[in-house]
Each structure stands twice: as structure tokens, then as C-alpha cells.
# Entry
Amino acid sequence: MAHELPALPYGYDALEPTIDKQTMTLHHDMHHGAYVKNLNAAIEKHPDLANKSAEDLIRNLNAIPEDIRAAVRNNGGGHVNHSMFWKIMKPKGGGDPSGPIADVIKKTFGSFKDFQTKFNDAGVKQFGSGWVWLAGKSGGEVQIISTPNQDNPISQGLYPIFGNDVWEHAYYLKYNNRRPEYLAAWWNVLNWDEINQRYSTFKSGKSVHEPELAHR
Ligand code: MN
# Structure
């Protein structure tokens, strides 16, 4: 029983010029790969957790034995976050959203432009490593939040509709220290179809568990 690194759903160079091939290769193979390896190493110490999905592991971190809690938080979170991240991007993506996600963004933030400004601002202000999210709340509303390290909104009882990785490993080779430039460019590779699917899963009130996240 082990968690598995999902294959990238497109080529390493497919998100050029927004995200360069070397960044994608290192980010997927080495960084995400390490989260999966370290998560498996932690779970090996507690075989009773072997059947739980990564989402279920981080949903209630207090239920995780203390000796592996930090490892599960960081590496389970890293696995869940990056598995989402590859899928909510695509080559020739971007543009204005359509469908239900466009409606809720307009209703909540006034306009897509205002939403982008607030989202980017939250990403810039996240001190050090972390993520910026559009998260769903239990009442069905959405909000922008940022999280440190590999923390996922699931651990706060929120649904991760989509998020951007603001760790330096996500952008430093191409954008150097210019995180705002990376945040602004990132919208060009968004996969709104996938984001609409995630939003509809949230609205339908289903569990955030994604069976396609490889675990066997
Ligand atoms: Mn990352």
C-alpha cells in the first residue's frame, strides 16, 4: 500500500512560456516526488493508516499519531496540493472563466479582475513559502485564503477549489524573486474546466476525497 506520484497530464514544456520546462521537471519529479516518498515513509510506521487517502489523512491532523503528525501535515499536504496543482493548469489555458465558477467569482468579488487582484495580493503577502487559494466554506460561499508551507484548506474544514503555489521552487528559475510577476502570468495556464469540476464537487457537498489520486 503506497501513495503514488501522479503523472503530469501534459509535457514538461507544455506550460511554456508561463512556466519553464526545467521548473516543471524539478517541481514534479523532485519536489512532489519527495512529498510522496516521505509520506509513504511516515505511514510505514503506522500501517493502520495505510488505507487512508492523503486527503483523509490531512482532514483531521489531530487524529494522526504525534510522531508522524508533522510529516503527514507537510508531505500529505504537499502530495494533495501538487496533485491538484498539475490538473488545474493546462497548455493554452487561461482566459476569462465561464460557467458556475465565473458566476460565483462575480457574485463574491464583483468582477474577475477584482478577484485576480485580491488573489494575487494574498499570494504576494504570504510570507515565505505557502499557497494562495480560492476555498469553499461550509455554507457554500467562497473566500480567498493563504496557507503557510504545505497546509491545505481541508485541514481547516474548507474545500480547496483551486490554488497557486508560491514557494520559490515554483517560480525562482524563471522569475527569480519577482513573485508578483509569476502570480500575474499564472492565470494564462489555468484550466477552467477542471476548476469548474472542482467547484461543482464542492457545491454538491461531496467529500473532497478524489479517488483518482493514486493510492493502492
Ligand atoms: Mn511546489
Strands lie at 130-136, 142-148, 159-165. The CA atoms of residues 135 and 161 lie 5 Å apart.
